[in-house]
Design a protein that fits this description.
- This is Glycosyl transferase family 2.
- Keywords: Transferase.
- InterPro entries: Glyco_trans_2-like, Nucleotide-diphossugar_trans.
- This protein is an alpha/beta fold and 245 residues long.
- It has one domain: Alpha-Beta Complex (Spore Coat Polysaccharide Biosynthesis Protein SpsA, Chain A), CATH 3.90.550.
- The chain has nine helices and eleven strands.
- The protein has a seven-stranded mixed sheet.
- Strand 7 and strand 8 form a beta hairpin.
- The longest helix has 13 residues.
């Protein structure tokens, strides 16, 4: 199985990108790493990548345009599977080999994984109770096979108010199309570097505090609250726009 790993980046520290890239060597599976610059390419990031794509206009959408561009490029190159890795995240050892085994064992078209939350300095904090790879997914925890490649467009079609949670739109598209989704449980997982100020405050200062934000970690529950608050007509418009009918 030829797997492409797509990482969008903008102005994240090179050390974070290098950490994620290094984690690919511990997957028990060969991969091609595609980095996508969202308006701010750097030669240092390009040097890490097997392939480097530049979006000349910055989108400021949390990496969604980069995920879509890199994912569709991988699909056009006829990769057997495409997955995504946020610029601040990394894969736990054996993550991709576990996902590959899961889709083969279930003859699935996609696979999802749990996430473990880490502080902004990269030290572990706690498993995530919300994102278990079954009820909710993280943008770094989705593997797609060719029958599921149409879901790649969902990265950019997710409604703007919940663009930071576009992974839930990808999951909804897969479920709505009746795709078989494998979830290997504890054998696969991604490390999520949480940049939310409130999450990190109890742990004290770090050298990465300049990168803290007031945004909360991506949350499926937040998407649900936003969706349920929409008027029926607005909800229908979003459903049509995303092709979820």
């Amino acid at each position: 199985m030829r797997i492409a790993v797509v990482t969008p980046y903008a102005d994240e520290p090179l050390e974070w990108l290098a950490h994620g890239h290094a984690s690919l060597r511990e997957q028990g599976h060969a991969v091609t790493h595609i980095l996508v610059a969202d308006g701010r390419p750097t030669p240092e990031a390009a040097a890490l990548a097997d392939q480097h794509i530049v979006l000349h206009r910055r989108h400021d959408d949390g990496g969604n345009a980069g995920r879509m561009a890199g994912g569709l490029s991988a699909a056009s190159q006829r990769f057997d599977a495409v997955t995504f890795l946020d610029p601040a995240d990394w894969f736990l050892p054996g993550h991709l080999s576990a996902l590959a085994a899961a889709v083969a064992g279930r003859r699935a078209e996609a696979a999802t994984a749990r996430r473990l939350l880490h502080r902004i300095d990269g030290t572990p904090a706690a498993p995530c109770r919300e994102v278990d790879g079954v009820r909710a997914v993280d943008s770094s925890g989705i593997l797609l096979l060719p029958p599921a490649f149409p879901a790649i467009a969902m990265w950019s079609l997710a409604p703007a108010p919940v663009a930071g949670n576009a992974a839930q739109a990808v999951l909804a598209f897969l479920q709505g199309r009746g795709r078989t989704i494998a979830a290997p449980g504890p054998t696969a997982g991604i490390a999520k570097r949480v940049r939310a100020r409130a999450f990190n405050a109890p742990f004290g200062p770090t050298r990465w505090d300049a990168w803290l934000t007031d945004a909360q970690p991506p949350s499926a529950a937040a998407v649900g609250r936003w969706w349920n608050a929409l008027e029926p007509a607005a909800r229908d418009r979003e459903i049509r726009r995303m092709g979820l009918q």
